[in-house]
Amino acid sequence: MKSRMTQIALALGAGLVGAALATSPAAAQATLANVKQKGFLQCGSNPGLAGFGVPNAQGEWSGLDVDFCRAIAAAIFNDPTKVRFIPLSAKDRFTALQSGEIDVLARNSTMTMSRDTQLGLDFPVVNYYDGQGFMVRKKLGVASAKELNGASICTQQGTTTELNLADFFRGNNLKYEVVAFATADETFKAYDTGRCDAFTTDASGLYAQRLISATPDDHLVLPEIISKEPLGPSVRHGDNQWADIVRWVHNAMLNAEEYKVTKANVDEMMKSPNPEIKRLLGAEGSFGEAIGLTKDWAYRIVKHVGNYGEVFDRNVGEGSPLKIKRGVNALWTQGGLQYGIPIR
Amino acid sequence: MAVQSLSFIRTAPVEATPPPTAVRGPVGWVRENLFSSPLNIALTLLVAFLLWIALPPFLRFMIFDAVWTGSDRNACREDVIGRPVGACWAFVWDRLSYFVYGSYPPAERWRVDTFFALLTVGAVWMLWLKAPRRGLGAAYFFIVFPVLSFLLLTGSERIGLPEVPTAFWGGILVTIIVSVVGIVLSLPFGVLLALGRRSRLPVVRLASVTFIEVVRGVPLITVLIMANTMLPLFLPAGMSVDRLLRPLVGVALFASAYMAEVIRGGLQAVPKGQYEGAMSLGLGYWRMMYFIVLPQALRIVIPGIVNTFIGLFKDTTLVSIVGLLDLVRTIEASRVDPVWAAPTVSMTGYAFAGLFYFVFCYGMSRYSLMVERRLAAGQRR
Question: Taking a C-beta distance cutoff of 8 angstroms, is the pair A120, A239 a contact?
Answer without folding.
Answer: no
